[in-house]
Amino acid sequence: MSAAVAVYRRGIALCERIPYSLIALLARVAVFEVFWRSGIAKLDDWAGTLSLFADEYHLPLLPPALAATLAASLELGGSVLALLGLATRPVVLLLLGMVAVIQLFVFPEAWPTHVQWAAFMLLLLARGPGVISLDHLFGRLLLRSA
Question: Which of 2, 10, 35, 46, by CA, is between 20 and 30 Å from 86?
Answer without folding.
Answer: 46
